[in-house]
Amino acid sequence: MKSVSLTIALGAVFLASAPVQATVSNVFVSNGDNTMSLVRCVTSSGRNPIRCEERERMDVGFRGDWPANQYRGHPAWWWTGISGEVVGLKALATLKTLDDPENIVRVRTYNEPGGPAGGANFIGTSPDGRTAWNSAREVDRIQEIDTDPDSPTFGTILTELVVPDLDPTSGPTATLGATRPCDATITPDGRYFLSPDLAGETLTIVDTWSKQIIHQVMAERAFPGERILPFMATTDGNIVLVENLEGPNTYDIWDVSVLPHEPIHLKKLTQADGLGVNAQTSEFTRDGRFAYLIMNGVANAAIGSANASRLDVLDVDRYSSTYLQIVGRVDLPFNCRAHAGDFSNDGSYFFVNCSGSDELAVVDSQTNQLVTTVAVGTGPRGVIVR
């Protein structure tokens, strides 16, 4: 692998009168040119509350998408889905560890005669870090993978579940499955794995203890004659937010605090609620009060315009008078084209990829304001913090 180090030093953070407690966040950004950037961010309560620099960039030979929306797991290892496989990377504070092939683990998620040779995977690490659950879209499988580096079966598939297709209007093709589970999210207790099914029109829920599918639920359509096409989901254990491709994009919100009983549908968000268009994914703020809905556009705005990407701020505090209402927005940089994001280690900042402008956007999660950007590789997609 070819590694390029950027020798910009951040230095220590000081105040003249007293030391300032600082938090370091290593932001790994997967770029569309098969490189990975490491952005080092230091947050503090001092005069400059956040300082970020790209410290390293390396050709890793693949592009990983959607690697946030998961738990920390093992402190050094993290996982991302690519075509036909998932990849584990041992990288905590530097990309140089990836020069050693032992620090990269590839798990082939399918290789079936007559089946697709490649396709999408969406993996979420369990809170204890010992296993991860993966949605293998093209073969309609949900898989449990051993992610414990001390385990003798590390990097192997432990469980495979076939996801039933409840939508008779869809079917398999030569390259795609009939149900197409399309994302991975796990409740904070590690008990339940949830995956939206892009073609099956369902939300599939797995009990990770019994290793069985216990529910598949469908929402009502917002637009008569249009399919819902759910494709992303994020849970905090109380609710799950499901992004849909129906219309200009919608969100279904389910109460999953009632599990193992069947989830309760609470609300469908549309543009009538102030929702933007071209939804991507979502993340809950660390304090549990809000969720950032990553939108790639707003109604009647052309791609590339100044307001083509934004974060819609959803109130998820169930005791709030504005519960499940959009209460704010964060405008992202010109031509940002955001897809995914993750929080700083102290929870005070949110990092979002800008695939259109080749930078990482930094949002203050206390004020909901864009504060800075950092140039990275070409077409950044995935973002994860360690």
| Average pLDDT number | 89
Task: Using the coordinates above, name the CATH class of the domain at 66-218.
Answer: Mainly Beta
User: What proportion strand?
Assistant: 35-45%
By oligomeric state, this entry counts as: single chain
The largest pleated sheet is described as:
5 strands, antiparallel
Structural class: mainly beta
- Stretches where pLDDT falls below 50 for ≥5 residues? 2-18
What is the overall shape?
globular
What is the third-level CATH name, the topology of the domain at 66-218? Methylamine Dehydrogenase, Chain H
CATH superfamily annotation of the domain at 66-218: YVTN repeat-like/Quinoprotein amine dehydrogenase
| Count of helical regions | 0
Please name the CATH architecture of the domain at 66-218: 7 Propeller
- The radius of gyration computed from the alpha-carbon positions, rounded to a whole number of angstroms, is 20 Å
Q: Order of SSEs, N→C?
A: EEEEEEEEEEEEEEEEEEEEEEEEEEEE
Distance between the termini: 22 Å
Task: Summarize the SSE layout with pairings.
Layout (H helix, E strand, L loop, with lengths): L2 E3 L16 E10 L3 E10 L5 E10 L17 E6 L2 E6 L13 E5 L12 E5 L5 E6 L4 E6 L10 E6 L22 E2 L5 E5 L6 E5 L4 E6 L12 E6 L3 E6 L5 E6 L8 E6 L7 E8 L5 E8 L12 E6 L10 E6 L9 E3 L5 E6 L4 E6 L4 E7 L4 E6 L1
Antiparallel strand pairs: 1-4, 2-3, 2-28, 3-4, 5-6, 6-7, 8-9, 9-10, 10-11, 12-13, 13-14, 14-15, 16-17, 17-18, 18-19, 20-21, 21-22, 22-23, 24-25, 25-26, 26-27
